[in-house]
Amino acid sequence: MLKKLTNEIAFFQSHPLGMRTLLLTNLIYGLVMPIIELFVGAYIMRNSSDISLVVIFQLAVYTGIPTTFMINGFLLNRVPISKLYSLGMLLSGVSMAAMMSLQELNTLGVFIAGLIMGLSYGFFWANRDFLALNTTKDKNRNYYYGIETFFYTMTGIVVPAAAGAFIAATQSNGWFAGNVNFAYYILTVFVFCMTVLASILVHRGNFQNPKKAPFLFFNFDRLWNKMLGMAALKGVAQGYIVTAPTMLVLRLVGKEGSLGAIQSIVALLSAILLYVLGRWAKPQHRLTIYTIGLTLFVLGALFNATLFSATGVILFGLCLAFARPLLDIAYFPIQMKVIDYVAALEKRNEFTYIFNHELGLYIGRLFGCGLFILLARYVNEYIALRYALLVIALVHFLGIFMAKSILNDRSWDNSTATEDDPGLVREPI
Predict the structure, then answer these.
(1) Contact 179/303 with Cβ under 8 angstroms?
(2) Are 239 and 62 a contacting pair, CB within 8 Å?
(3) Single pTM value for the model
(4) Which DSSP string corresponds to 286-345?
(5) What average pLDDT does the segment 229-237 reach?
(6) CA–CA distance, 207 with 202 (Å, rounded to integer)
(7) How far is residue 337's CA from residue 1's CA, in Å, rounded to a whole number?
């Protein structure tokens, strides 16, 4: 066992410094992601009787992300990418503080807090995607995303259980004069500390900014247009899936303690599988992995819609625990490979496609969030929680056909490819 662990560490150390630094930075930041994704929604539900405010917050987040991607594109001409990346991580703490400072949760206040969180995610993901693209090659991207997802999964085991237990203990033991919201304030301080630490580490990577070049374009190669369609389908699920587990658990299972415990249990079940896939899966396995992930997502949504009980939520959580990381392991390497190809073909800055991809995601997110808000406010919350997820899962399932179309596109057979220009070489993706 010790020899196996030593070999894995040596294999990790064999990769470039930039890639290793990026992975370690994301590991530290991964400690705060479960708090942001799970307990911000729980805080809104605890302090408001309007469940649609959770999705309004998420819609504001998704509105801020593409806006920040565009701002980030202009700032990259003048500001080091490591500073912009750090800013994104630090703003997540600012958003949580803004939320906690609201005396009364209303649509405007929640939207503003969500917009700040969108700025945080925008700076984080825009620069993280570019750095991931430039510190990896297609042959090691399965490993990179497998390790990154493994890190996020492991933090997803520890953090939700610890945070959920802390909130539950505050309530049951009467800590802080029985003020449960004070527990959320302490979690906000923890988020600030972790983001500061991650911000310090990222400056050790000696990352380079993209070359100064225009990044706003509207006409693209056919292959990239297919990638945008796949992004929109992914966005449909993202628009709801981030907040769905929180709302379902708190409605049908229990309080924050149950939320953290369930999240940790399901994360533990998928951690080892993810590492193995990231370590050994080959480029030609990506479509199979993606198909399995989408099938599990639909199956989990079907459990929720059919049972709509604590059992249904737990089964949905189990399916989702495997589905989300499987989809990420397959999706991101495909996206990066397409960017490698079309950036070389169209002779444009890679950030052009990172920004444009975010617009594709945003279109899907608007549909996903909008569907839930309309159902919750103009039909009823029961229908929104029980059936919207299944509709969204079925729409997202179409991504299998889009991914297959991308992988089998004739554009990959480029007769001008050479060994000196590997971005155009026909390889299994």
Answers:
(1) no
(2) yes
(3) 0.70
(4) HHHHHHHHHHHHHHHHHHHHHH-SHHHHHHHHHHHHHHHHHHHHHHHHHHHHHHHHHHHH
(5) 91
(6) 9
(7) 35
Q: For the structural domain made of 15-205+215-412, what CATH number should be given?
A: 1.20.1250.20
Instruction: For residues 389 and 50, give the distance between their C-alpha atoms in angstroms, rounded to a whole number.
Output: 19
Of the candidates 366, 362, 364, 338, the one whose C-alpha atom is nearest the C-alpha of residue 352 is 338
d(CA 416, CA 62): 39
Rounded alpha-carbon distances, angstroms, from residue 37 to 13, 137, 257, 326: 31, 30, 15, 19
d(CA 326, CA 314): 19
* Phi, psi for 96 (deg, rounded to 5): -65, -40
pLDDT digit string, tens, across residues 338-355: 998 999 888 888 888 988
The pLDDT tens digits for 385-403 are 788 888 889 999 999 999 9
Residue 214 buriedness (CB in 10 A; 0-12 / 13-18 / 19+): exposed
Q: Are 198 and 28 in contact (CB under 8 A)?
A: yes
Q: Which residues of 59-80 are buried (b: 16+ CB within 10 A; e: fewer)?
A: bbbbbbbbebbbebbebbeeee
Lowest pLDDT segment from 165-179, 180-194, 224-238: 165-179
SS3 253: coil
pLDDT for the residue 309: 81
- Closest Cα to residue 215, out of 326, 99, 122, 76? 76
What digits encode the pLDDT tens for the residues 52-103? 787 788 788 888 888 898 898 889 888 998 889 888 888 887 877 777 777 7
CB atoms within 10 A of CB 231: 23
Q: Domain residues of the chain, as ranges?
A: 15-205+215-412
Residue (of 156, 163, 164, 165) closest to 320 by Cα position: 156
